[in-house]
Design brief:
about 450 residues, alpha/beta, six-stranded mixed β-sheet, 18 helices, Bact_solute-bd_prot1, Carbohydrate ABC transporter substrate-binding protein, SBP
Length: about 450
């Protein structure tokens, strides 16, 4: 049902809290990197990558370009559709790659296991180094909010362990043609959102629908960030005491309740694995304007009937207040360096190159978009239409609930997101929903690892 990405097979980290970071190319680089750049010493860099939906040719092209730019480095590629099965026995035998492109969220959970074992290297300094071949630091090139998130800092120690590589933004998907024909604008704040809801209602069109309540795991977090900044979102994902009933959180929950007041009536009944596409079809039929979703929905509904002239559009969820922030949530794939890697400095230097314009254009050829500024202009027209709204968003948030010991008989994700169905039908109030989340949050706070 959900998250059927054109992305590589691991773009699914909404419920995980992990790390990110990158490598650099400056005079600050040490040991191996300095040797390869300054003395001409040859370095062999072992790179292991998942052969994903981007195809088998993407990484060889990147490697060829890098070796041309830096002839002192030879990159040995180990690429496989089940790369974990290849790497696990090798690493157990002490044979570590220098760089690994395998995201969290895959069934075999290789990076998650290594994070628990403190076996992934701190690569925080990558972000302060210059991109290889460019006069700009990695941090200055990456989109606001991506570095320092719960994804990049899994231990909440201010250090980064995973480099964010490719992103798939989520947002409010809609038909551009419908709004154009009606003379309606995409709402930038909640006042405008409610005003549009009334206009649409007068014409028999619902303001909002959703495939299923689980899709709010990338929508409600944005409302929290829009209300209290990324810190409020981070506090919520870390079960901070009182966060869900705080004044800023209340603004976000109130906004969610206001939006749910305009939900298309059949939405909740069809919001299940069997019928969720009926809700998505509401947007294609101009029976509802907006739905929370991700880039995968375009492919998922490619063969579905649609209103004449239908054209996909994506917008960031509305600001809670007029002139307020509008963040976007994105699923992000990651690249990392094992603690046992022999060439960490050369690995970091290579990572910085992956954020170069040269590399980004090669990635874009294979439909892989990096979370860097101006990447939208490197994408083809179809992709650009799905990504361009991130250019004007306040920033990108990503990540999910912090890992805890199991809490028997309760799921905070179910309480936080599944209860939205009851709020939409009027069975529960927003206040009751907030209180329930705060209560279950306390149980997970006590179970933090």
């Amino acid at each position: 049902m959900k998250k059927k990405f054109w992305l590589s097979s691991a773009a699914i980290l909404a419920s995980l809290t992990l790390v990110a970071c990158g490598g650099g190319n400056t005079s600050e680089s040490s040991s191996t990197s300095e040797a390869s750049s300054a003395t001409g010493d040859k370095v062999t860099l072992k790179f292991a990558a998942l052969e994903s939906g981007y195809g088998a040719e993407m990484w060889p092209e990147i490697i060829e370009a890098y070796q041309k730019a830096n002839p002192n480095v030879t990159v040995e590629l180990n690429q496989n559709k089940e790369i974990e099965d290849v790497l696990s026995p090798q690493m157990k035998a002490g044979d570590f790659p220098d760089v690994v492109m395998v995201s969290v969220g895959r069934q075999k959970a290789l990076p998650e296991t290594l994070l628990k074992e403190k076996a992934i290297a701190d690569i925080s300094d990558v972000f302060t180094k210059k991109v290889y071949g460019e006069d700009v630091t990695v941090k200055d090139k990456i989109l606001n909010g991506v570095v320092g998130s719960t994804i990049t800092d899994p231990y909440a120690d201010g250090k980064q362990y995973m480099a964010p590589m490719f992103y798939a933004p989520t947002g409010m998907f809609y038909n551009k043609t419908l709004l154009k024909e009606k003379g309606w604008e995409v709402p930038k704040n909640m006042d405008e959102m409610k005003a549009l809801g009334e206009k649409a209602k007068a014409e028999g069109i619902a303001l909002f629908t959703f495939p299923g309540s689980g899709y709010f795991d990338s929508f409600l977090p944005v409302l929290l960030a829009n209300s209290g900044g990324p810190q409020l979102f981070a506090d919520a994902m870390s079960y901070k005491e009182g966060v869900y009933v705080s004044a800023d959180a209340t603004k976000a929950f109130t906004a969610m309740g206001d939006i749910l007041a305009y939900v298309e009536p059949t939405t909740v009944a069809n919001g299940n694995p069997q019928n969720y596409m009926k809700n998505q079809q509401l947007v294609l039929d101009n029976k509802a304007i907006f739905m929370p979703n991700g880039t995968w929905v375009v492919g998922e509904m490619a063969d579905a009937p649609r209103a004449e002239g239908f054209e996909w559009g994506v917008a960031a969820p509305p600001a809670v207040t007029t002139g307020g922030d509008q963040y976007a949530y994105s699923f992000i794939e990651q690249l990392w360096v094992p603690e046992g890697a022999e060439n960490k400095d050369a690995a970091k230097e290579f990572i910085t190159y992956l954020y170069s314009d040269e590399a980004a254009k090669l990635f874009a050829k294979h439909s892989a978009a990096q979370p860097i500024k101006d990447v939208v202009n490197m994408l083809d027209a179809e992709q650009k239409a799905l990504y361009e709204f991130t250019n004007t968003a306040t920033g990108i948030i990503n990540g999910g609930f912090k890992a805890t010991k199991p809490v028997e008989g309760v799921s905070i994700k179910e309480v936080m997101y599944d209860t939205i169905d009851s709020v939409a039908t009027g069975e529960k109030t927003v206040e009751e929903w907030q209180k329930a989340i705060e209560e279950v949050s306390a149980k997970f706070r006590a179970a933090l690892e």
